[in-house]
Write a structure and sequence with these properties.
CATH architecture: Orthogonal Bundle
Helix content: over 70%
Number of helices: 19
Bound molecules: phenylalanine
Largest sheet: none
Radius of gyration: 21 Å
Number of strands: 0
Strand content: under 5%
CATH superfamily: Hydantoin permease
Shape: globular
CATH class: Mainly Alpha
Distance between the termini: 54 Å
Number of domains: 1
């Protein structure tokens, strides 16, 4: 059977941007920039983007497209023994979906709770007490939270329906799930910057503290953020590339994907920090005392700001809906891209039937998600997230760049990319793939390990 193909170039590019632009852009990037030198962070950020992120993205697109195969099979075609790297990548990705979808379940619930601003003026109590029902602190397992389960069912069903017909159903989804969060971010950003105190908030995000650039951790964070945000090393971009025709442009598509993704991050930074500035002014505490990233930002800090918004409950409900709809549509394309990377690998290796595989995987993922849906699930989620995103992503990235750069050959890949692409890439590509990416990732790994032991 012929391999499925994207309906158009834009279906592919939108799907790639959709995978890259996920929850990390909204809640990881702003916090990263803030805590790593503010405006100065953009220096290592762009260096990491151009020197490592974009080249590896091009390489992943190119490998998938050239071999017309998912990550494990592509790796096997380069070198038999390298197949395990591809499996490692997609299996970690699979584990990530199990809890990514639990967060999607939280978001579904908060979409509902936005009506009437259910968290009132104490979102922290609402989140931990009413919603998660954690009262005895960490480690408390116990009964399953039904509202989260319902959200989890919705998330898996949605993913199933998006992936069911492969590239054609994905293509129909990304035309709205990718632009919608961007539009919502723009609207939230405009409302944000017209609030009192917004400039103070934005100062925290943009005021450069160049002294921070002397800290190697800032550089490690920039490289880590770039690899994570571009969804690299999970076999996703390889699977997506494998649904292209062999002569599809690579260089341009990778650049558009990377810049579209970064633009989403910057918009999110503005939408988040302008509102934090407003909130700081309202509550009389400085911005640096209210700022948070991750789950705390999405379910505690931002809701708190919403409950302080001028205009009464109806306006606050609308802002809440816009915010959680933005997160939901931002997250969904990342969530299903992880599943698709696994599906592609399974179908290449075991000739699995797409629908049957998706149904089985969804049920399995749902059951694994139950672990995170219990009252203390949040703590499990934190631990596993930390573990996977650091070790799996870094180690796969190192092995992958070595296999592609040294075993397949960076120059050979560059020739292929240049044959099909409008923009021609120079020899710096080889340097990046063979030296810069492995060195950067090894350094990040070492720094992380050192911090871990301390
Ligand atoms: N790129 C996504 C984000 O920034 C996260 C992600 C990583 C999604 C890996 C899928 C795979 O949120």
């Amino acid at each position: 059977m012929a391999r499925q193909k994207w309906g158009s170039r834009w279906a592919f590019v939108l799907a790639a941007i959709g995978s890259a632009a996920g929850l990390g852009n909204a809640w990881r990037f702003p916090y990263m920039a803030y805590s790593n030198g503010g405006g100065a962070f953009y220096v290592p950020y762009f260096i990491a983007l151009f020197l490592a992120g974009i080249p590896l993205l091009m390489a992943e697109f190119a490998i998938g497209q050239k071999f017309q195969s998912s990550a494990p099979k592509s790796m096997a075609k380069i070198k038999k023994g390298a197949e395990f790297i591809g499996w490692w990548a997609v299996i970690t990705g699979a584990l990530i979906t199990f809890y990514y979808n639990v967060i999607m379940a939280y978001i579904f619930n908060y979409l509902y709770h936005s009506f009437g601003v259910a968290w009132k003026d104490n979102p922290s109590n609402f989140f931990f007490g009413n919603f998660l029902k954690i009262s005895n602190g960490p480690g408390e397992l116990g009964s399953i939270r039904w509202p989260i389960l319902i959200g989890l069912v919705l998330a898996w069903l949605w993913i199933y329906f998006i992936l069911r017909k492969g590239t054609s159903s994905v293509g129909k989804t990304v035309v709205w799930t990718v632009p919608l969060p961007v539009v919502l971010l723009i609207l939230l950003g405009i409302r944000g910057i017209t609030l009192d105190g917004a400039t103070q908030g934005l100062n925290y995000l943009f005021e450069p503290n160049f002294a921070k650039l002397a800290d190697p951790r800032v550089w490690a964070n920039a490289f880590g953020q770039i690899f994570f945000t571009l969804s690299l090393a999970f076999g996703i971009m390889i699977a997506y590339g494998s649904y292209n025709k062999k002569d599809e442009d690579i260089a341009n598509n990778a650049i558009i994907t990377a810049l579209g993704n970064s633009a989403t991050s910057f918009l999110a930074g503005i939408a988040v920090f302008s509102v934090l500035g407003y909130m700081a002014l309202q509550t009389g505490s400085p911005v640096n005392e209210v700022v948070k990233g991750g789950i705390g930002l999405a379910f505690v800090v931002y809701p708190k700001a919403i409950s302080l918004f001028p205009g009464g409950m109806i306006i606050q409900s609308i802002i809440g809906l816009a915010f959680f709809l933005m997160l939901l549509t931002l997250g969904i394309d990342s969530a299903f891209s992880l599943v698709e990377a696994v599906e592609a690998a399974a179908s290449d290796k075991f000739k699995t039937n797409k629908k049957a595989f998706l149904i089985g995987f969804s049920i399995f993922g749902f059951l694994c998600g139950l672990l995170f849906s219990t009252q203390g699930g949040l703590y499990w989620l934190d631990i596993i997230d930390h573990f996977l995103s650091i070790y799996a992503l870094l180690i796969v990235g190192i092995l992958e760049s070595i296999i592609i750069g040294w075993v397949f050959g960076a120059e050979k890949l560059r020739n292929y990319i240049n044959k099909v692409s409008e923009v021609k890439i120079g020899k710096w590509f080889n340097l990046s793939l063979k030296f810069i990416i492995p060195t950067a990732l090894i350094s990040v790994l070492v720094l992380t390990l050192i911090d871990e032991i301390k």
